[in-house]
From TrEMBL, chains A, B:
<dbReference type="Pfam" id="PF02572">
    <property type="entry name" value="CobA_CobO_BtuR"/>
</dbReference>
<comment type="similarity">
    <text>Belongs to the Cob(I)alamin adenosyltransferase family.</text>
</comment>
<dbReference type="InterPro" id="IPR025826">
    <property type="entry name" value="Co_AT_N_dom"/>
</dbReference>
<dbReference type="Pfam" id="PF12557">
    <property type="entry name" value="Co_AT_N"/>
</dbReference>
<protein>
    <recommendedName>
        <fullName>Corrinoid adenosyltransferase</fullName>
        <ecNumber>2.5.1.17</ecNumber>
    </recommendedName>
</protein>
<keyword id="KW-0169">Cobalamin biosynthesis</keyword>
<keyword id="KW-0067">ATP-binding</keyword>
<feature type="domain" description="Cob(I)alamin adenosyltransferase N-terminal">
    <location>
        <begin position="6"/>
        <end position="29"/>
    </location>
</feature>
<keyword id="KW-0627">Porphyrin biosynthesis</keyword>
<keyword id="KW-0963">Cytoplasm</keyword>
<dbReference type="InterPro" id="IPR027417">
    <property type="entry name" value="P-loop_NTPase"/>
</dbReference>
<comment type="function">
    <text>Required for both de novo synthesis of the corrin ring for the assimilation of exogenous corrinoids. Participates in the adenosylation of a variety of incomplete and complete corrinoids.</text>
</comment>
<dbReference type="InterPro" id="IPR003724">
    <property type="entry name" value="CblAdoTrfase_CobA"/>
</dbReference>
<comment type="pathway">
    <text>Cofactor biosynthesis; adenosylcobalamin biosynthesis; adenosylcobalamin from cob(II)yrinate a,c-diamide: step 2/7.</text>
</comment>
<keyword id="KW-0547">Nucleotide-binding</keyword>
<dbReference type="GO" id="GO:0008817">
    <property type="term" value="F:corrinoid adenosyltransferase activity"/>
</dbReference>
<feature type="region of interest" description="Disordered">
    <location>
        <begin position="1"/>
        <end position="20"/>
    </location>
</feature>
Length: 205, 205
């Protein structure tokens, strides 16, 4: 077999393999025909939970939707996402947390803050004009039991049927994962931080 | 012990736990002082690899950076992210792929397309005015060996020192993971698709 034949064989095997893949994918696409809003949860210890939610904000804006964002834990006041999306007329951006919980050291104040944030979230979840709601770091408020997960799930499931919601944060509650349509675990493989790299603008905030 | 005391105890324990957490986090932050561009890889079978990259685009734009995006595999022409980011003056958006590989069934054409896309990527990686480069679905082009991973890694490492890069796609090459600073495995926990929900605008594209 000369080189050209080997190359032709490789191309033929590739085409055959791709043909099989295409058939499987086409069949799955044909089967998925329900159109409705989906509830997504981005959890895990890795990077990308909030940034994936902000990517969906861009995606939704590109389709002409209106978007509401509630940040339950405010880490810092100089984030690129807040600066950028506050300039977009179709985005309502609400920062409700006042510092990472280990900065406040005051559980009662954290509960009150989380409850005020949930009231804001509920208003978005009751507004059919909003196509996508981002509840950033809600999982942290649930993890520390600042909010009641049963009530949160009930409010999420009562939203308009076409509305999408993304919930982010580590350690998502089992009740929320059960209620969700799409759940991703962002797992940490490695992080620049471990090699002494500072949190860089444009990447970490 | 009455109810008020129990509540005070709970608050005190919470404050103590948070104090310890804060000390650990503060120490880590103090240790991480290197400022440079980072190479991120978003891989795995779950949702959020590309959307997390697009979230970083928003984040970088909020900090006044210029951004370049190369899409190595073009799934569809009506994505929200493309519509939205093409409206942003500081974004250069290049769609180089012409269909998922299993739609083209033609290996030689795919190789030529990937090589043209890499030439575009290299131009961004040599431009110090670009703060963030997104190489969307590059991992797929590497997986099918449309591109040589050694050359790709060499070009990535030769970029300007302050430039951030995000590479997305399933099945990232070990050589790329080794070269990267931050790697996240987006693991599939569940997906709406499995319950018959169609790919929804604002969520899947």
């Amino acid at each position: 077999m000369n080189v050209n034949n080997a190359s032709n064989d490789k191309d033929a095997r590739h085409a055959e393999r791709m043909q099989r893949k295409k058939a499987v994918v086409d069949e799955k696409i044909a089967a998925a025909q329900i159109e409705r809003g989906v509830l997504l949860v981005n959890t895990g210890n890795g990077k990308g939970k909030s940034s994936a939610a902000f990517g969906l904000v861009a995606r939704a804006l590109g389709h002409g939707m209106k978007v509401g964002v509630v940040q339950f834990i405010k880490g810092r006041s100089d984030t690129g996402e807040e600066a950028f999306f506050r300039r977009q007329p179709d985005v309502a951006w609400h920062v409700m947390g006042d510092g990472f919980t280990w900065d406040t050291q005051d559980r009662s104040r954290d509960v009150a803050t989380a409850e005020a944030a949930w009231a804001q979230a509920r208003a978005l979840l009751q507004d059919p004009a909003i196509g996508l709601v981002v509840l950033d770091e809600l999982n942290i408020a649930l993890k520390y039991r600042y909010l009641e997960v049963t009530q949160v799930v009930a409010d999420l499931l009562a939203r308009p049927s076409h509305q999408h919601v993304v919930v982010t944060g580590r350690a998502a509650a089992p009740e929320l994962i059960e209620a969700a349509d799409t759940v991703t675990e962002m797992a940490l493989v490695k992080h620049a931080f471990a090699n002494g790299v500072k949190a860089m603008p444009g990447v970490e905030f």
